[in-house]
Amino acid sequence: MKKSLVMMLTLLFVATSLLAACGNSSSGNSGDTAAGNNSKPAEEKKVEPFELTLRHTQLGEAKKNRFAILEDAVKATEAEVDGLTIKLDGVDSEVNRKEKLRGEMAQGNPPDIFDAFGSPDVGVYAKEGLVLDITSILEELGIKERFGTSLDPWTVDGKVYGTPIGGSIEGYFYNKEYFEQKGLKVPTTIAELEQLAEKIKADGKIPFAQASKDAWVPLMTTNNLWAYTAGSDFTYGFKKGETKWNDPKMVEALAKHQEWIQKGYYKKGELGLAYGDQRNQIINGEAIMMFDGSWANSVFLDPAQSGDMVGKIGFFLMPPFNAGDGYSIMQDSNNGYSFSAKVADDPQKLAAVKSFIKNLYSEEMQIRGLKEDGLLPAMQIPTEKMNEAVTNDLMKEIIGTLADVKYKWPAFDALVQADVNTELSKEIQKMIGGEATPQEVLDKVQAVQEKANASE
């Protein structure tokens, strides 16, 4: 019995020793294979540093909140992607869209990520193969459907080439305190709006703050006027040749705008004033009303920019010409970010773009845009969360106006070719300066429209 036990223990010891030896031998061979005769562990593969260029237009005090949101998305992306540095390149919006980006596209070398307008700009660039198709990225992240119709201006032949940063509407910001002191009421027709303008002018104030150095600013007013005189869907027909710029209903709209200029409803010298100047006119009490995009509300919530006017600004939509016709508004999701097609050739950059989209286009960031910057969400956000985010009266007024809207339409520059937009911008400034009549303006724009249509 004892002899058998001793033999079993001996065999067990031998087997254990052999297994240990095999294990040591295997470890040694593995080490020899990885590092030769060197006993040090193999070094981890280093990630090569790389850089993305991000072109943005969030410049100046009025856009500081939007820039802060962008910066946070950039920092989160750099933290997620090893070796990544994102270089921020800030450029004025008009210079970027109409000069710099067009030149870069012509050379086939746009920034990796760039501020863009979906229609018609990105559509043109996409057809030339210059913009990244991000459809699969949005689907992979599970956010494509959350954009709803906001992706329409960014979609070409079913493929998505960019993402809108937010939405907006246009209307009149006004000095509520002045209205209360003078017993004035929010107008419900164009005639009532003109009566307000006459009373304000008689009181020594400027009825409408406006700065027309950049033509898109006064064209907001013009576009809203022709949406009433010609119809909310009239602009859709220009590119198809179904409607004409020099239609009498269009002439009527520009003539109304010109009439307001001639009656002195705007500050003299408006053509020499930059966009920010019109906000200063209402902040310093020179002007009482200002037609602008809803994005401007963040300026009036910031004591550093608006001083004592914080809490004293209200908002109403441009009213129809006739009572009961229904309100018609521009509702836009045409500004955001697109990406160079060359990104697809670099796995590191492609991963970085995916991370950037994930970090910028989240529910948290959309709510921050609404709360901090007054930007309407481009993505679908639960109503209760939007209501929780909106705590100031001005933003509540802006959102509240949507209940009265009957017609919605995109801004004209999302529906016509770039050359047509350029011509209209040039001609509307001539009209403001008294160098052209509405008919002359629209005849010239129609000629460019026909040429642009024929070349497509």
Textual characterization of the structure:
The structure is a single chain. The chain has two domains: 50-167 and 333-381, 3-Layer(aba) Sandwich (D-Maltodextrin-Binding Protein, domain 2); 169-332 and 401-454, Periplasmic binding protein-like II (D-Maltodextrin-Binding Protein, domain 2, 3-Layer(aba) Sandwich). It is built from 17 helices and 13 strands. It has helices spanning 2-35, 64-80, 93-106, 118-127, 135-141, 176-182, 190-202, 216-229, 248-262, 275-283, 303-306, 347-360, 363-373, 383-389, 393-401, 418-432, 438-454, and strands spanning 50-56, 84-90, 113-117, 155-156, 159-160, 163-164, 168-175, 206-209, 287-293, 313-316, 327-332, 335-339, 405-409. Strands 7, 8, 9, 10, 11 and 13 form a six-stranded mixed sheet that branches. A five-stranded mixed sheet has the order 2-1-3-12-6. The protein has a two-stranded antiparallel sheet with strand order 4-5. Helix 16 (418-432) runs antiparallel to helix 17. The protein is globular, with a radius of gyration of 30 Å. The N and C termini lie far apart (102 Å).
